[in-house]
Design goal:
Layout lengths: L2 E5 L25 H10 L4 E5 L5 H13 L3 E6 L8 H6 L7 E6 L12 H12 L3 E4 L6 H10 L5 E3 L13 H11 L4 E5 L13 H15 L4 E3 L12 H11 L5 H16 L3
Parallel strand pairs: 1-2, 2-3, 3-4, 4-5, 5-6, 6-7, 7-8
Helix pairs in contact: 5-6, 6-7
Length: 275
């Protein structure tokens, strides 16, 4: 089975979605399930995992409502305040919703020490006990803190979004490579092959700019802990759905059919317990 393990939906709001600036006109509009489905069908995907873009419980409810109404949405990564003193009570509202698979906070916008606070670590342990996963969205400069976090949360399952956003457009690789290998040393951590084209030079990137970074995560995580995600519609800033997919599939074409199946769907199914 094929799963797009990372994409977003939104009703565009210029205030709430201020991160979508004026030079991002291609994504300054609504993106809803009906917009994504043709892409999934054209490329043989059996479903997707939709991921939060706004940090509110309203966002989580919005994504779950979409999942309820569209069977191809197999899982939801929502948002909840992990530092809340009443976290367990907040989680109760979703106790019966089987499509809620995990949570994410936009850690790339926080200082590295944010994720090491007592409250945040406690929150991770709480959701871990309930079987929820956690998506880690960070820049390379956060990876040392990520390692410290992983040392405190061995029983929690994590996935690194967008291969930790290496600086592809400037060709920087060595420091990120060192740190991503350290992260990959924790067996409870997976990695999403997603969000690559927008970390390259969005107007004139070429596959050769991205392939060295794909080689690093393949070496670090192997074929059993990588999962493909389109990062649609954000990917549209730099490439069509088809073009960003082609980069990944072309690079992994050297692998066996079974290994490709794992990266393009089976690992996401296992990680998020989609079926």
């Amino acid at each position: 089975m094929r799963i797009d393990a990372h994409q977003h939906f939104w009703h565009f709001d210029p205030v709430r979605d201020a991160w979508i600036t004026g030079d991002m006109s291609v994504i300054r509009r609504d993106f809803l399930p009906g917009d994504l489905l043709p892409h999934l069908q054209e490329h043989g995907f059996d479903g997707c995992v939709t991921v939060q873009a706004d940090q509110s419980e309203t966002e989580t409810r919005f994504l779950l409502e979409n999942a309820k109404n569209h069977d191809f949405i197999k899982g939801v990564v929502g948002w909840v305040d992990l530092r809340a003193h009443d976290l367990e009570a907040r989680l109760e509202q979703w106790a019966d919703d089987k499509k809620l698979k995990g949570f994410r906070h936009i850690l790339q916008a926080e200082k590295p020490e944010y994720m090491l606070s007592t409250e945040f670590v406690s929150g991770l342990r709480t959701i871990g006990k309930l079987g929820y996963t956690y998506d880690i969205l960070v820049f390379p400069g956060h990876l040392n803190a990520v390692v410290q976090l992983l040392e405190q949360t061995e029983d929690q399952y994590f996935v690194i979004d967008h291969i930790a956003k290496p600086y592809i457009r400037t060709g920087e690789i060595e420091a990120w490579k060192r740190d991503i290998h350290l992260v990959a040393g924790f067996p409870n951590v997976y990695c999403k092959v997603s969000g690559l084209v927008t970390e390259a030079s969005v107007t004139n990137w070429k596959p050769g700019d991205i392939e060295p970074y794909l080689a690093v995560v393949l070496e670090a995580f192997g074929t059993k802990r990588l999962m493909y995600g389109s990062d649609w519609p954000v990917c549209l800033l730099a490439a069509s759905y088809e073009r960003q997919l082609d980069i990944v599939e072309s690079f992994f074409s050297r692998l066996s059919p079974g290994e490709r199946e794992r990266i393009m769907g089976l690992n996401a199914i296992d990680f998020y317990q989609l079926f």
